[in-house]
Write a structure and sequence with these properties.
Elements lengths: L14 H14 L22 H19 L8 H11 L2 H4 L2 H4 L26 H18 L10 E5 L9 E5 L1 H14 L11 E3 L4 H14 L3 H16 L11 E3 L4 E3 L6 H9 L4 H13 L2 E3 L5 E3 L2 H12 L18 H12 L2 H14 L3 E3 L2 E3 L18 H13 L4 H7 L4 H4 L3 E6 L2 E9 L4 E8 L5 E8 L5 E5 L2 E5 L9 E5 L2 E8 L3 E7 L4
Antiparallel strand pairs: 1-2, 3-4, 4-5, 6-7, 8-9, 10-13, 11-12, 12-18, 13-17, 14-15, 14-18, 16-17
Helix pairs in contact: 1-15, 2-3, 2-6, 2-15, 3-6, 6-7, 6-8, 7-8, 8-9, 10-11, 10-13, 13-14, 13-15
Protein name: Linalool dehydratase/isomerase domain-containing protein
Pfam family, one: Ldi
């Protein structure tokens, strides 16, 4: 018998990356209407750390982990991804819209009366929810080769409280009907985009439906994303997408036809991160000047954010031809998820040096916490510690964005957009289901060697019994466990591991006391 192949050269998650994935699992596994470690700074789901933002960014984080790191383990991601999709349809996530849809003088200073408002969270406006949800659904279809959400009524928003209303209200959609709705809203608005809150057009929120259109195009063979991006770019070329400092407009007030630039930090990075999917040349060209004043080096050589007030003064100095004086503003109150936005952007544009410094700062100053095998950074509302170090941490950054940054790769969103998986990928051997509390650290199929390399470990170091279902495994095979023969398709085996064929699937059951390598070698290419 040939010796077991060496699989150490195949990619594997490190402890931090695996910890972020497990933390998402832990949060999503909570019972409905339990939101431990997800509470927002503001009641009413109105702020940028609301459930909808956390859930969608957690889904995209899982998407990166699967697409870039563990492509042969859909079974490790699909169940939790679909649970996030289900939770996005819970009323606690979207019921804010009924009152928000009526409008606000804060968002429209010329308002003299509120609108009637409506309950359906995706029928009109509210792109901050519908666009992200659409992108999540589209990503699911690409990652798992699935049209399960494109059936009539596959998406359902059910409003049925005990003591409100005149009866149950249900709003049903499919992926395609949601896409049609968003397309025509964008067209009706002259391709500038769809508003979030009434009268508030955010550039970043309109990048998400573009992702959704692209992923749906892959299923249908259409080119809607190409049409939308061309029209969107033409519209903003006329208006201008940048202010005088070379920053992306954050917010456009539609009725007043003018921009607003909230001084919150991270806005450039948040827009650039998502815009990079389809406008990479622009993003990479602007990024160095945009990031230069938004970050600063700490005395210990790490990277953190400059206060937005100080960053603005530095930009003004550069625009006037003066060398900026880098000052601190310890009176600034951090509120936005700027740290997470910047980390995510650095990962996407490939600014690896600054990203290492920023993540190093998070690990040194922002209280990294491990719980049930999961890694997160708990909420901290204080802006600075007693030494002037920024210590603010929001739920979106701590639960999702730092994991998103660690699991992305340079141009990772761009690669997913432009080089998605093809039919050949889905014909390869892969782990389609996992039963038991195991973390998948490696899952890679080598086409040239007809070899499936897997590395698993029990969650939080607790002994587990695990069953794997491996699809597309019809060819004769030999299985090694930690470089030692374990079983083969001829019926030979070793104690403690059971392997059986079910159709074209191979089902493997084994105890998992510690980190374990499994190497499945096929005699011919499946």
């Amino acid at each position: 018998m040939l010796p077991a192949p060496d699989i150490s050269g195949y990619p594997a998650l490190d402890d931090f990356q695996a910890g972020h994935v497990q933390h998402v699992r832990n949060l999503v596994a909570q019972q409905d209407n339990e939101w431990a470690n997800m509470g927002s700074m503001l009641w009413g789901q109105e702020w940028t750390d609301a459930y909808r933002y956390q859930l969608t960014q957690m889904a995209y984080t899982l998407g990166f982990a699967h697409f870039h790191h563990l492509p042969a383990a859909p079974g490790a991601f699909r169940p939790v991804f679909e649970e996030i999709i289900r939770k996005m349809q819970l009323p606690e996530v979207w019921a804010y819209w009924r009152e928000t849809s009526r409008g606000s003088i804060r968002n429209n200073p010329d308002s003299t009366a509120l609108r009637e408002g409506w309950r359906d969270p995706v029928i009109k406006e509210n792109i901050m929810y519908s666009g992200r949800f659409f992108a999540m659904l589209g990503m699911h279809s690409m990652l798992f080769d699935s049209d399960q959400y494109d059936r009539e009524g596959a998406l359902s928003f059910r409003w049925d409280p005990l003591f409100q209303g005149l009866g149950t209200e249900i709003y049903e959609y499919s992926l395609s009907s949601l896409a049609d709705n968003l397309y025509w809203q964008m067209a009706d608005q002259g391709w500038y985009g769809i508003v979030c809150e009434p009268n508030c057009l955010f550039l970043v929120c309109n990048q998400f439906p573009i992702l959704g259109f692209r992923f749906l195009d892959l299923r249908k063979g259409t080119a809607v994303a190409e049409e939308v991006t061309q029209s969107y770019q033409a519209a903003w070329d006329k208006r201008g997408i940048l202010n005088e400092y070379g920053e992306y407009w954050r917010l456009w007030l539609v009725e007043q036809n003018r921009p607003e630039m909230p001084l919150e930090g991270g806005g450039n990075a948040w827009t650039a991160l998502n815009l990079n999917a389809w406008s990479r040349d622009l993003v990479h060209r602007l990024y160095p000047d945009q990031i230069r004043d938004e970050i600063r080096r700490t005395p210990d050589g790490l990277v953190t954010l400059a206060e937005p007030t100080a960053a603005l003064e530095a930009r003004k100095a550069r625009l006037a031809g003066r060398e900026p004086e880098f000052t601190r503003d310890l009176d600034f109150v951090w509120r936005a998820p700027a740290f997470g936005y910047v980390a995510g952007c650095m990962a996407e544009v490939g600014d690896e040096e600054n990203l290492r410094g920023l993540l190093g700062y998070a690990d040194a100053y922002l209280n990294p916490t491990w719980e049930n095998g999961g890694l997160f950074y708990p909420r901290q509302d204080r802006s600075f510690d007693e030494n002037g170090n920024p210590v603010f941490m929001d739920r979106l950054t701590g639960n999702a964005m730092l994991g998103y940054a660690r699991l992305n790769v340079p141009d990772g969103l761009w690669k997913m957009y432009h080089h998605p998986w093809t039919a050949a990928h889905f014909r390869e051997p892969r782990v389609t289901a996992i039963d038991g509390p195991a973390e998948v650290l490696r899952a890679w199929y080598d086409r040239e060697k007809s070899l499936l390399a897997l590395t698993l470990r029990p969650v939080a170091g607790k002994h587990a019994d695990v069953t794997l279902r491996i699809g597309n495994a019809e060819a004769p095979w030999t299985l090694f466990r930690d470089d030692v023969f374990a079983a083969d398709s001829a019926g030979a085996g070793t104690p403690g591991l059971r392997a059986r064929r079910e159709g074209n699937d191979l089902v493997v059951s084994l105890p998992l006391p510690v980190r374990t390598n499994l190497t499945l070698c096929f005699e011919e290419k499946p």
